[in-house]
Amino acid sequence: MSAEGWLRGALLLLPDGLRPRYREEWLGSLRDAHELDVPRAAIVRGAYLTALGTPRSPAAFGLTPGELGFRRLRWAAAWFAAALVLLNGGWLVPGEALPAPLASLVSTGLAGLAIVAAGSGAVAATIGLRTLLPVRRPWLGWFLAAGIALAGAAVVLALLGVFALAFALLLGYVAGLGLVVIAMAWPIAREPALRRTVPGIPARLGVRRSALLAAATLLAALVVAVLHLLVWNPMAKVPGLGLAEIYAELAARGEHPSLGIGFVMAWAAMWLPLVLLFLAVAVIGPRGPLRNLDERRVARSALAGLAGIGFGVFIAGFNLGMSLADAFMTSGGDAAFSGALLTAAATVAGVAACLRIIPHTTAPAAG
């Protein structure tokens, strides 16, 4: 990577309010490095030392203490959500399709990343709460902030543990419709300066191409998910029988496969409105009721949708999976490799969605 590229990384470590000043200063130093007889690598090292040593005060970010505190709490929520995504991925990715050593490696690796993400969330939550707490004594402020952060995390984990199945069922069957409503209705900052990060690839593609790519990706994921649940996974679980024989045997043993098939098709149908929404944006653009779907909104909604589809496979196929397990004395995990691929895609998309959506979400007035 070039020295300019390394400097861009150092700029990302700086508070927002200081970036324009240091960008001009550092790039100027690089341009004059030869005349000054200073190695470009030394300039890059100095930039990183400066960025890491800069105080993170509200003034440096161009924010009030309250705004900075809530921004850090949003980052904490993003890291905690990413940790949950990684834990789910580590639990669901291996299934029965991967060799035991590889499955163990994947689970352990994702669990380790989840611990890192949770630790980052705990640090961000503590710093954010300390910024918000009107306590003059530093030790007392940090003590209270850490205590509140730990207590809040414990309460959330307890609620997730108690209501995990209910949350999973609810999200599994209404997440697609929920994303449609949020994507269309959530206000968007029309002023580019209010949108803190560069859209990147979606901006280069344009909103219509981004929407078309999003629709194609989600539709492909849905097709793969349905085929996985109704065809590939049953055949992988009972390799000695054909698909028709498997379903006939399920019916003969009173497992009612039509019910499981119905759940799968109903689940897939609940995601079609999101695909149709992206197709509408691809055809007519972000106008009228679609005005809030710019490139960034489309890309982030697509990431959330891909994560929802990949993780929702577990809920959609739960009934049919249990029927197969009861009828043929198999486990409830995925036996087809397609299940591991779907969950892996969901894990990557889910982490990206958490870190791109939650920290940068505000509710500006629509313009």
TrEMBL record:
Keywords: Membrane, Transmembrane, Transmembrane helix
Highest taxon listed in the record's lineage: Bacteria
Residues that span the membrane, as ranges: 75-93, 105-127, 139-160, 166-189, 210-231, 259-283, 303-324, 336-358
Identification of the protein by name: Uncharacterized protein
Species annotation: Agromyces mediolanus (Corynebacterium mediolanum)
